[in-house]
Amino acid sequence: MIFLELFWTFFMIGAFTFGGGYAMLPLVQAQVLAHGWLSSEELVNFIAVSESTPGPFAVNVSTYAGMQTGGLFGAFCATLGVVLPSFLIILLVARCFVKFQSSRVVQGCMFGLKPAVVGLIAAAVVSTGQTVFFENGFSAAALGSPAFLCSAGIFLLMLILSMKKAHPILIILLSAVLGIGVGYLPFMA
Questions:
Q1: Are residues 52 and 125 in the same domain?
Q2: Do 94 and 181 belong together in one domain?
């Protein structure tokens, strides 16, 4: 029964999320926490790991949640569930591409979906930030905490490097090294 539940839950996530992994994060978070497959802390930690590993976020998180819940076959069911809707939709779109390309309805839908995707990504950032930095609610003390200040410093450095067109692999490696280094600072323990 858990295998069918994993498949169906991630199938619905894959079917009703537009905009990629970040846009699906609020739905993944809601479903994974509601089912008790992962805790908030585990999910946030896995998001960090998922962003540091190859592959799409949706596949990584579904595989991990499935593995934690139902072992190897659970990982297979969850992963199949999340990728199958995209696979079926792209087959349909490829078959009817010429009709879809000039359709005002489809163009209008895509125009309307863009702000929704941006909003979903913003919601994921706020939700993840709240879990990481404001676990016990928002406070001025949390803004002055070493963890928040170090994270903000790393974020600003990475933002500057990306604006200077530094290679993304360099940015990822540097942020990982800085994050590990900051983690070993005595006041971070």
A1: yes
A2: no
CB 63 within 8 A of CB 79: yes
- pLDDT tens digits along 149-162: 777 888 888 888 88
Contact 23, 117 (CB under 8 A): yes
DSSP 187: G
Separation of alpha carbons 48 and 60, rounded Å: 11
Which of the pair, 59 or 139, is modelled with greater confidence? 59
Spell out where 72-186 has E strands.
Answer: none
Count CB-CB contacts under 10 A for residue 23. Answer: 22
Same domain, 147 and 109: no
The pLDDT, as a whole number, for residue 24 is: 79
- Full-model pTM: 0.57
